[in-house]
Specification:
4-stranded antiparallel sheet; 11% helix; 508 residues; mainly beta
């Protein structure tokens, strides 16, 4: 009997591994929800689990919005909170527990301050501390934060940009207040001019911090000591052949068996005005790629592998890389892009080799607003756009890709106009809706008509519009397209009700 149990258990383990492999090799994103924000845009997104509840924090210019997130990926607004001096945008947001208290740390980019909020029992926020920049701390235009937990204390590492580049460490006290420990001004050796990404690895009880330098085009590693001080370990610069670090942007990491990796993306300087924001204008463009570095036993970075962008991937303008899932053999990553306006899923195997899985064209550019979050056994991504005309945050569930071969997507919109809507207003609304075909090339076809049913079950709906898309990408682009958003804004005041359904059907 015991032998049979052991055999069954081993079979279960094998099947579980096969199932995970099948999902990771063919994973896809499926949008579950989207909600409006009170900020002017969504620059940063983070999430947190507190006492079994799941919360999402969306930071933009002026405000931070708080939502609850349920197991289906549905967002429910909870509260919004004004940033210091109504500035921002909120960047580098990180939530963490410090000696039993939950905090959200926020870099207020143009407010030149670091704000600490206590996360209350319902997920809403209460500001408890504020640290302003000095001539010794390099917090001006702060954009990236990283909490490092040591044996007896926790520290907040802060990266700056533009006029005050450098790296700073602050001790986090039990009440959320911060006290300065050490700052290291950027120089020609280290890559801390424009730290937009940071990550921490622990190697045999020692913590190492990794930073990407956006303006100085490279990555650096630092040893962090128990008292919050730090020193530089090694630095790797960009080149014009096999490295893709011009505009080093997101930085993350993963441990697979005995191997520790740091993954670095970049938004190449070619995507900016050469004589504007970019300091070094003598760059060359030799493509886009995601870089993998192996960490040696001394915490130093060693170039290991590069996944180059091609016609089958969406990696132009990488601004965020999130670890979706990890087991001992492989990790699934999500890459948010500003220039490809997509989320690309990748797989990293235990040998440190990246390979593409699938991608979804989101219909909006992602800046720093992408976050991976797990509820139970389900993996979600929360995303937002820096676009000022969008004002939305969206959730996606990661699941096996559905075979849509030979099918098209129908998007059915049923409208009921208000009683006081004039005939001219309704006709203009219809004309604007139909004209979307000329504004959004991803729309394959639009047809419409007025209700002619005599069954008495129309519930007052008078107009039906049927839009045809060839795939999920086209629907996402349509949903968040400026022309569609302008339509909603324009006709919204005369709409009494709306009923929307989508379905897939075989092409006739």
């Amino acid at each position: 009997m015991n032998l049979l149990k052991n055999i069954l258990f081993l079979c279960f383990l094998v099947l579980s591994q096969i199932s995970f492999s099948q999902i990771s090799d063919n994973a896809m994103l499926y949008r579950k929800d989207f909600k409006s924000i009170s900020g002017k845009n969504t620059v940063s997104v983070t999430s947190y689990e507190k006492d079994g509840s799941h919360y999402v924090f969306a930071g933009g210019v002026g405000n931070i919005d708080v939502y609850s997130l349920d197991k289906e990926g549905i967002l429910t607004p909870i509260s919004n909170h004004e940033l210091h001096m109504k500035k921002g945008p909120a960047r580098g947001m990180v939530a963490d527990r410090i000696n039993g208290t939950d905090f959200l740390f926020v870099a207020n980019k143009h407010g030149n301050v670091i704000e600490t909020f206590k996360i209350l029992n319902n997920g809403s926020l209460e500001r408890v501390a504020l640290v302003e920049d000095t001539d010794k701390t390099y917090l001006g235009t702060a954009i990236t934060l990283q909490v490092v937990h040591m044996k007896k204390a926790s520290y907040l590492f802060i990266g700056g940009l533009e006029e005050t580049p450098g790296l700073s460490s602050f001790k986090i006290h039990n009440d959320g207040k911060l006290t300065h420990v050490q700052s290291m001004k950027d120089d020609q050796t280290i890559h801390t001019d424009g730290i937009i990404g940071m990550f921490v690895h622990n190697i045999k009880g020692k913590n190492y911090l990794y930073t990407g330098g956006f303006q100085d085009n490279g990555v650096s590693s630092f040893r962090v000591y128990d008292d919050g001080t730090f020193k530089n370990i090694n630095n790797i610069s960009d080149n014009n052949t096999d490295r893709y670090l011009t505009g080093a942007y997101p930085v993350t990491g993963v441990t697979l068996r005995d191997n520790k990796y740091v993954i670095v993306g970049h938004r190449h300087h070619k995507y900016y005005e050469r004589n504007g924001f970019i300091k070094k204008t003598d760059f060359e463009y030799h493509g886009d790629g995601v870089s993998v570095f192996k960490v040696n036993k001394k915490g130093a970075l060693v170039p290991h592998f590069v996944l180059k962008d091609d016609e089958s991937t969406k990696l132009q303008g990488q601004t965020r890389i999130e670890i979706v899932s990890v087991d001992s053999n492989e990790a699934v990553l999500a890459v948010g892009t500003r220039d490809d306006a997509s989320i690309q899923l990748l797989k990293l195997n235990e040998n440190g080799i990246l390979s593409p899985i699938n991608y979804l064209e989101t219909g909006y550019s992602i800046y720093y607003g992408l976050r991976s979050h797990k509820i139970g056994e389900d993996n979600f991504l929360i995303a937002g756009s820096f676009r000022f005309d969008l004002g939305k945050i969206a959730t996606y569930k990661i699941a096996p890709k559905i075979n849509r071969e030979g099918k098209v997507l129908r998007h059915i919109v049923n409208l009921k106009y208000k009683d006081d809507a004039t005939e001219n207003q309704v006709n203009e609304a219809v004309e604007t809706f139909v004209n979307l075909k000329n504004e959004i090339s991803e729309i394959t076809n639009i047809e419409w008509g007025e209700n002619d049913s005599t069954e008495g079950a129309s519930k007052g709906f008078t107009h039906t519009f049927t839009i045809t898309f060839k795939d999920e990408h086209a629907r996402e682009i349509y949903l968040f397209h400026k022309a569609h958003l302008d339509l909603v804004k324009k006709v919204g005041p005369i709409i009494g009700d709306v009923f929307v359904m989508d379905y897939w059907t075989t092409i006739n």
